[in-house]
Every structure is written in C-alpha cells, then in structure tokens.
Design a protein that fits this description.
The protein is of the alpha/beta class. It has a single domain, classed as Phosphoglycerate mutase-like (Rossmann fold, 3-Layer(aba) Sandwich). It has helices spanning 15-18, 32-44, 59-71, 99-110, 115-120, 125-135, 144-164, 176-186, 220-232, and strands at 4-10, 50-55, 80-82, 168-174, 201-207, 210-218. The relative contact order is 0.22.
Length: 233
Amino acid sequence: MTETKLYLIRHGKTMFNTIDRVQGWSDTPLTPEGREVIQHLGAGLQSVPFEEAYSSDSGRAIQTAKIILQQHQEKENIPYEMDERIREWGFGSLDGGYNNILWELLARLLNVDSLADMSKVSVSYKELADAILAADTTGWAEPYEQIRERVWTGFEDIARNRERNNGGNALVVSHGYTIAFFLSLIDTSRPIQFDLINGSVTTVCYNNGKFTIDTVNDTNYIETGKQHFLQHH
C-alpha cells in the first residue's frame, strides 16, 4: 500500500488578508495577486499525484482548491469535496475587525505584551480559545473542545478514508490557524504559530491511526510553478 499523505494548503491571499482584518468564519475573495500565487502553486504541484481533494466550506478555500485543480494536469480525475470541519477558527464578534485590535485585546486578556510574545511565553491554543470566547459578545465564538474535536476529526477522517483506499496523497485546502492548531495536536511540544504563508504547503503522513509531521510552511511549490508559468506563458 502507498503511504498516506495529506498536503495541507493555506488558502490564497484574500482582501481581508491584504487589509489585515480577521477572517475567521467571515469570508472575502482572493485578490488578483492571491489568485496568481495559487495558479503558480497548482502548476508547481503537477508533479504530485492526488487521489482526491478537499477544502473547507469557506469561499476562499473553495476558490483556492478549484484554481489548484484547474492547474493540475490530472484535474479531471481528482474527486473534490468540502468539509466544514476544517474551516477557520470562529472569532465571533471579533470576525471582520482589524487584526491589531483583536491582538491588543487578546494580549491584555492573556497578560502578554504582544502577539510575538505569545509564542515566546508559550501561550497555549486552549488559552487563546478561552480568551477569544471571553472577548466575544455574540456567543458565536467556539469553545476550545469544540474546535479541537472538529479539526481533529475533520483531518483524521480524510486521512483514514485515504488509508482505507490504498493510501496516496490528498490535497486539503484549509486555513492558517486551523492548520497550525492541527500540527500542535499532532506534536504537543510545538509553540503557537501565526506565520503560515498564503499558499504554503504543510505535509503530514498518516499510518495506522498516527500522524507524523513531514514539512511545514513550504513555498517551494509556488516557486517551481512560477518558473513553469514564465516558460509557458
């Protein structure tokens, strides 16, 4: 049987990413630059045979997955579906606001000076989720246990299903915090991470119920695809 591997992609750069607003469960489309980077990524991933593709149910993830599949040579043969469990964290009333306001508020609640300090003083994802819950005025923000349950089962079901079907690679388009948080569930020693790049590839292997982290935040596929584009367009 072939090794089971998930290629976790952070969606392309969006309007809110560009103007530094919190997206969470709110959504904005990819910018022209964001689309171009994902086209390069799709071209760069042509060397990877995918058995299937998934994305979260957010528009930005769907748009990203479709661009990648259009650029992928075997696009006709790759079944694609959405899974709401791998969507971004829900920030409740903080969704759509400016990032700096969100982080100032959370830093105060967590007694740290800044976002950069969170990874230094090892704030946990649970503490972060609890702070978001405390700051939310709508009751829409998700409790930590709920995020953990949906994110873990979302990715594990994809991997388990792939393993049952003789393994191979699955393309999975998700979100910055969701992917970083999932990695911390695999390896609890990982500090909190906020720097996953739009279009970056993070790979995890799955074998008999156990995940191992392979690569994190890799942008080489984008660079490879860019060269391909320059030669063919």
